[in-house]
Amino acid sequence: MPQIFHKFFESKNLQNILITSHENADPDALCSAIAIKTLIDDFYPEKKSIICIDGLNQVCHKIIDYFQLEIQDSPDFQSDGVIIVDTNSLDQLGKIKTQITGNTSVMLIDHHVPHPRTKQFAQFTIINENAIATTEIIYDLYQTFNILPSEKIACLLFLGLLYDSRHLILANNKTIQIINQLLDLGVNYSKMIELLTMPMDRSERIARLKAAQRLIIHEFNSWIVVISHVSAYEASACRALINLGADVALVYGKKKDEIRISARATAEVTEKTNLNLARDIMEKIGPIMQGEGGGHDRAAGCSGIENLEAGLEEALKILKMKLGNEVNSQKKTNLNLTHN
Ligand SMILES: [Mn+2]
């Protein structure tokens, strides 16, 4: 792997390196960027590098404050090389995308499934789809370069692994081995968990509880579909209802003149029934509601301005087609947009 770095730097005798990741970066993205910058600073001290990311999520701000990290949101120099971490498409870079032109040397370090267009913008790639987090790939790089991560870097690599493995639920044996080695470098486990824990806003908790209070259950074959409504935090409410036991959750809400529907589904229901919330449901009911919809197979949404009832009816019709006959309906969905 060091050869790829040498080739990258030698390709155009690169001097000024911009390190970046997806906008609204999560801890794996942020910590990977810091760790790769430190590796470059140690191994190629004559090169200048900065980290620029278009926005960070809330947990990242806590990490930045705790470790006193320096991140910019727009570069203060003209870079001749760019290193992208934890991101597989240029569109996700936000405003940093403009820093990459046809002539820019780009190296990509990532653990996502490569996008078909990846090869078009990244001439140098270190991709490992089996890695739980990009920080796992970067830990491997430290080993290959024979550099022992400092305690701070060990903490950052640890945070990336904890975050992307959902506090180790998705971890495999290798993750645990790395976690163990990072602990030996001085990581304080409970401090890391504390850093990754964000208290939820009271209003969001209330919305989730109201969604649970108001939900209607529909059973299609053995699948449990729930529909509810809130005035804000539709997506969060969907996640809460999935955690409560639903296979599919639809939560609608209205703000000013906009009607929104958010939906979430479990991996099990999408895998076994081939249900794709974006393609099968939201892209279809968005136009019914004079708006549009989209997203992913397990997380999608739509917004519009009218015909909520028709949109929800169509969603249930599609769910019946995909999941099977309705066996036990609690009662007809009672549309209500007036309560908070
Ligand atoms: Mn990641």
Helical amount among residues, as a percent range?
A: 40-55%
> Widest sheet: strand order?
10-11-9-8-7-6-12
Structural class: alpha/beta
Bound molecules: manganese (II) ion
Per DSSP, what share of the residues sits in E-state strands of 2 or more residues? 15-25%
| Rg estimate, integer Å | 23 Å
Shape: elongated
Task: Provide structural commentary.
This protein is of the alpha/beta class and 340 residues long. The protein has two domains: 2-196, inorganic pyrophosphatase (n-terminal core), CATH 3.90.1640.10; 203-329, Diaminopimelate Epimerase, Chain A, domain 1 (Roll), CATH 3.10.310.40. The chain has 13 helices and twelve strands. It has helices at residues 2-11, 27-43, 58-67, 118-121, 134-144, 151-164, 173-184, 189-196, 202-214, 234-244, 267-273, 277-288, 308-323; strands at 16-20, 48-51, 81-85, 105-110, 124-127, 216-220, 223-229, 248-255, 258-265, 292-295, 299-304, 326-329. Strands 10-11-9-8-7-6-12 form a seven-stranded mixed beta sheet, sandwiched between helices. A five-stranded parallel beta sheet has the order 2-1-3-4-5, with helices on one face. Strand 4 (105-110), helix 4 and strand 5 (124-127) form a beta-alpha-beta unit. Helix 2 runs antiparallel to helix 6, helix 5 (134-144) runs antiparallel to helix 6 (151-164) and helix 12 packs antiparallel against helix 13. The mean pLDDT is 92. It binds manganese (II) ion. The site of manganese (II) ion (MN) has 6 residues, from loops. Manganese (II) ion binds next to loops.
